[in-house]
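Example 332.
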Amino acid sequence: MKTVVSGIRPTGNLHLGNYFGAVKNFLQMQEEYNCYFFIADIHSLTTHPTPADLHQSVKTVLAEYLAMGLDPEKCALFIQSDVPEISELYTYMNMNAYLGELERSASFKEKVQTQRNNVNAGLLTYPVLMAVDILIHKADLVPVGKDQEQHLEMTRTFGNRFNHMYNTNFFPEPQAFSFTGDLVKVPGLTGSGKMSKSGGANDAIFFSDDDKVTHKKIMRAKTDEGPKAMNQEMSTEINNLFDLMHLVSEQDVIETFRKQYADCTIRYGDLKKQLAEDTLKFIAPVRERIKEVEADTEYLSRAAKTGMEKARESAIKTIEEVRQIIGFRKFY
Ligand code: ADP
Ligand code: TRP
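Predicted structure in complex with tryptophan:
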């Protein structure tokens, strides 16, 4: 059976991009594969959260995963820092990751631009830790959004380099995966980029937002002056709104608005109102379930413990073999 690994950093609440880019695939994959889904709390240390914030964010994401339907019986749902073997393998893999290739990673270059005063070594070696998350379970498939493609490429490079160095075929080559075929990119509300936690307060639609906030964010989304000619090409802003609609609205509703766009009768206010309504229909029940799960500390604790046990069993097996391969052999 194929093995699957994926994780999300607990740096805020989950948004529609996280759901459609990652978690929706997790839900389907847990039914048919050997899955490891985790909360990447070590990764989130690059942004220096306070201990209280870190703990709260991990708790929230755990509750969100569970409320969205991840089942601790069907998959290994765990917290990254509960598996010390990950940190151990990270130490080893760092020895074969080169400064030049790490500096060339798009995510590192972006951080150097956006957070000049916090360019720490953890950011530089982020792709090594991410590779380790995947390699420690010898994963074949990694469900992620389009923005993670380069990290997956680096994971394959690091795994292959290890194999080559020690003349083994120990690590398989993991591939990015999405049930839709193409990796998903959910647009944000404020511009042409992807929906993201770091895109400002009005960019992302969070599952934790209440109805009013979500409605307001969508009604404020950027539009243009409207189509001036039949079948005019869409601007990025309008295309984004239709992309979002494809995630939450019925096909016939989308068709109606597409026709109105084509014949220039569309009113963007109506389009956004419909999008807001359909988004809320999708989000509200999940949000209520998140609240219930987050209050159930017993369930959270049982889930995290079960996940930790499953993840460690797999990680310990890998790390013991890695130690042998590297040459750390016991004298006692
Ligand atoms: P953010 O960009 O908000 O910080 P993360 O980087 O924590 O989100 O992403 C966690 C997972 O969700 C990754 O698999 C990522 O590819 C996916 N993801 C995040 N934003 C989007 C998006 N807008 N479209 C598709 N997938 C996304
Ligand atoms: N880098 C991913 C992100 O920023 C999160 C992540 C960490 C991840 N480790 C992973 C995703 C391993 C998939 C597999 O979204």
